[in-house]
Amino acid sequence: MELLLKTGSGDLAHDTGSSMLFAQLTYRESLRDIEACLRSQSQLLYAMGIRGSVSKSNLAYVNERRDWRMFFDLADILMRKARRLHSKERYIEEIDQAVYDLDASIVDLCMSLFPWARFRRAKSAVKNQAMIDLRGPMPAFIAVT
After folding, report:
1. What residues of the chain score a pLDDT lower than 50?
2. In sequence order, what DSSP letters do the residues of 46-65 get, joined into one string?
3. Per-residue confidence (pLDDT) for residue 4, from 0 to 100
4. Concatenated DSSP letters for 12-26?
5. pTM (2 d.p.)
6. Taking a C-beta distance cutoff of 8 angstroms, is the pair 14, 22 a contact?
7. Within 10 A of 127 (CB to CB), how many other CB atoms are there?
């Protein structure tokens, strides 16, 4: 978690990391949504650990320059911790061996914004693939192609 807050340039990266964690926990859907929500509660920003101003341009700047591998490592750490916490939970009590559920979904994208994700002649998309271990509530494997 500290990597998310400390990468980049000092306070801006810390404020952006805190803002993005807030956005994830409160289901914010866009930079504009994050900015509007945080600015509506500006008197509470200091208590949340956000010392500077929150703006779409600051959020976009830091996120654009943040290395994707940091998020990959963070997700891996959080999934391992969650798997340990939920290892005793069972979806199906009668199963003693590993049984997996496979899921694949296609997410349509805008061709002008994501030309690298060509799916069809005039369409862009990414494919999400997940393998979920039915002995617990955590995915065993996730791939985005």
Report:
1. 1-8
2. TTTT--S---HHHHHHHHHH
3. 46
4. HHHHHHHHHHHHHHT
5. 0.51
6. no
7. 13
